[in-house]
Amino acid sequence: MKNLRYIFIIQSLRLGAVFLILSISAHASVMQRRMSQPAEPGYHCNNQIYLFSDIETVRQKACKAFTYPRKESRRPLVNTYSDNVENWIFEWSIPACLAKYSKGVNRATPDKITFNNSCELTGVLSYDSASSKYNLCAKVPEVSTSASSRMNQDPVKSFIQCGSLSLEIIEIQRHASAQSTRFMEGFVEVENSSFEVDGPWRRNVLGKIVSVHNRLHNIYYEVMINNQNEVRGMVVTHYIRSVGPAAAKCNDNKHDLLHMKKHRENRCIRLVCIFNTKFELFPNRLALIPSISRKRKTLK
């Protein structure tokens, strides 16, 4: 009798072990299938997902705002400062309607993108109310095929970039030719450029007309040329906004100074770009070099 009871206990333990192994195996199989399924492409911010195309639309809008000189226009806001303005990082808030699961509800502290002076995206940030700080959103890349990406590539064009402004070389030459008379007479010598091998350098303003919200908008930039009428560099102005403490009043107490409200200030910065290669400003004709003005200006 004892032997039968012992055999029954052993068989029960064996059956229990078999069921446990099968359960663990099934759970592992389910977890493996879940892990093998790729996450949805885009930027994952807490419970929100932003599509790459939507973030690109926001980035392009923020980039265009660099060149709007009107005071009432929305401008990129400085996020991170540096000793060199060319290394500053800026931010631009993301509309709530772009979040996939937001249902268009506006948040008190919206998510935002960060980017540099060249309009290169440096991050997508989401505000965490628990820690009261912004966290970097996780980027889940798309599964791309090398064949399709090669087919969709555009032919390489000769262009140059300074700050947020990217221009084809032929476009700069066209702008200069269209304004050749006034353009050649208005050059100003670049300070300290007489020491260059191809100096002195001179600079003048050109304009590019673009359409913004169905309205024509003129973007101004400067080109620097050497004594052979070859372009050596470009200067671009960025219109930005910075946040600083409000001016203190004489009767403000210490508590008010510690909890002083910050105000936003419109500013502009100048980005000077010297090109590694040079190109002719007037390739199809010889342009007369006017007498160089004795008036000198710095590139501040």
Explain what you see.
This protein has 300 residues and is of the alpha+beta class. It has two domains: 42-142, Microbial ribonucleases (Nuclear Transport Factor 2, Chain: A); 159-297, no CATH class. It has helices at 2-36, 52-64, 146-151, 169-178, 180-185, 254-258; strands at residues 42-45, 48-50, 77-80, 89-93, 112-116, 121-128, 133-136, 138-140, 159-162, 165-168, 188-190, 202-212, 215-225, 230-245, 262-280, 296-297. Strands 15-14-13-12-11-16 form a six-stranded mixed β-sheet. The protein is elongated and about 110 Å long.
Question: What characteristics describe this protein?
Answer:
alpha+beta, BgtE-5715-2, Nuclear Transport Factor 2, Chain: A, disordered C terminus, 300 residues
Secondary structure blueprint with pairings:
Elements: H1 2-36, E1 42-45, E2 48-50, H2 52-64, E3 77-80, E4 89-93, E5 112-116, E6 121-128, E7 133-136, E8 138-140, H3 146-151, E9 159-162, E10 165-168, H4 169-178, H5 180-185, E11 188-190, E12 202-212, E13 215-225, E14 230-245, H6 254-258, E15 262-280, E16 296-297
Parallel strand pairs: 11-16
Antiparallel strand pairs: 1-2, 1-8, 3-4, 4-5, 5-6, 6-7, 9-10, 11-12, 12-13, 13-14, 14-15
Protein name: BgtE-5715-2
